[in-house]
Amino acid sequence: MISKDLLDILCCPETKADLVLEGDSLISTDKATRRKYRIENDIPIMLIEESLQLTEDEWKQIMLKHGKPTE
Q1: Which phi and psi (to 5°) does residue 48 adopt?
Q2: Hey, what CATH topology would domain 4-65 get?
Q3: How far apart, in whole angstroms, are the C-alpha atoms of residue 38 and residue 47?
């Protein structure tokens, strides 16, 4: 599990946006890119080319769940 301290210092490598922890992934709070980075064996894989891009609806649901703005 990713610690709160580590989550506080990590950011999206593409946009430098904050991240939220969602299950076994880190989700960028940047609306334009909506990047999803997987976590393997408690290690975040923060490579842009290995990230996924969420649909806008998927991203909005996650942001609302975590109390983050969607606009």
Answers
A1: -55, -45
A2: N-terminal domain of TfIIb (2.20.25)
A3: 10
